[in-house]
Amino acid sequence: MNEEQRYIQKRIWKARFQSIPFYLCRIFPVRKKKIVFCCIEGTTGYTCNPKYIAEELIRRKADYELVWLVNDDSKRFPQEIKVVRNTLWRRAYELSTAHFWIDNSRKQLEARKRKGQIYIQTWHAKLGFKPTCLDRGASFSKIAYLVSKHDSDMIDYVLSNSKWYDDTLPTGMIYDGPTLRTGSPRCDILVNDRDESRKRVRENFHLSEDARILMYAPTFRGGSQGTNRAIEVSQGFPDYARLVKALERRFGSKWYIFLRLHPQLVARNLDQGAAGADEHLIDVSRVDDMYEILAGCDAFMTDYSSAAFDAAVMRVPIFLYADDYKEYEGERGKLLWDLRKLPFPLALDNEELEQKIAGFEDEKYQKQLELLFQETDMVEDGKASARVVEAVEKLI
Prior knowledge:
- By secondary structure, the chain is of the alpha/beta class.
- The chain has helices at 3-18, 20-24, 48-59, 88-96, 142-154, 163-172, 188-191, 194-204, 240-251, 263-267, 290-294, 307-311, 325-332, 350-358, 362-376, 384-395, and strands at residues 31-38, 65-70, 81-85, 98-103, 118-121, 157-160, 179-181, 212-216, 255-259, 281-283, 299-302, 318-321, 346-347.
- It has 2 domains: 3-183 and 383-395, CDP-glycerol glycerophosphotransferase, N-terminal domain (Rossmann fold), CATH 3.40.50.11820; 189-376, Rossmann fold (3-Layer(aba) Sandwich).
- It has 16 helices and 13 strands.
- Helix 3 crosses helix 16 (384-395) and helix 9 (240-251) packs parallel to helix 14 (350-358).
- The N and C termini lie far apart (48 Å).
- Residues 223-234 and 267-271 have low confidence and may be disordered.
């Protein structure tokens, strides 16, 4: 038995042991109007698609019992939500007695769903760059397959925003069940009340009304899919001072960079991307909800984060800075899009990034965006949360 086989065997036995509380908690009845939410295995707070579904339920004053599993129970939540620390026994009890599970990432191997329960998987990406599951080819480990398949077998509905996303699910999520073409609840704020969001963000960060903001959100690196759970901090951050100057030359006004690192880096205190930065950079990595801030931004930049496609619904300039393009594909697997053929200007180094910003043509860019939305049959109209809640009410 090799190292990988030993690791898998260990995970399977651990999962069998940890599944015992789920079976014991079946002595308690399933409550018809109980909904349990979770994000990224409890590592984040009140955020992502589950947040905006909960917000819509609260707005409607719906008669539901709302529970949120979170590792840090000091996180702030609305008073209408019962916050539960995400320990094994508490997780088992809350999930075992809920009619609905709403999550944006995988349930782990110990989770056991009961007959009559409904699991709605919102996921944390729709249109995206990175291959997942079977699309990763040889880089998709056996343990990752087991976790993914276990979770997908429990899912009743996956939220979708496009035909493109529907078509990726059999290989990208190992899922061939029903979808709900609702759009992404977390994108509602990017469509609705943009002026209010712009004003709020500038007030919260003590910026002038005419200040302009680019959010930079590099994606996750490291061995999250295999036996090595280490996380790498990329050294390929752009030159922030050069970036600000390029933005100010092309678009005018005073610009700020809002740095948003991946939650798994922040959770492990590896947020080193702001080192050596100037006063134009503000680290927003520890704010729970990225989208409340993104809604007030004037531009967006990433390497491979699916948030680029989300930010596109705001019709703001989006730039891709990917100084390890070839290396990343070698480790992760071939990307789902050729970055050079997307509307988003691609730069492989700081000099090219300056050139792409200087040459940005908004009219051409907007036409390319519309073509992308049409080709993918994408639906992001600010009404996704309402559609999900209506679906829940019908399922009740």
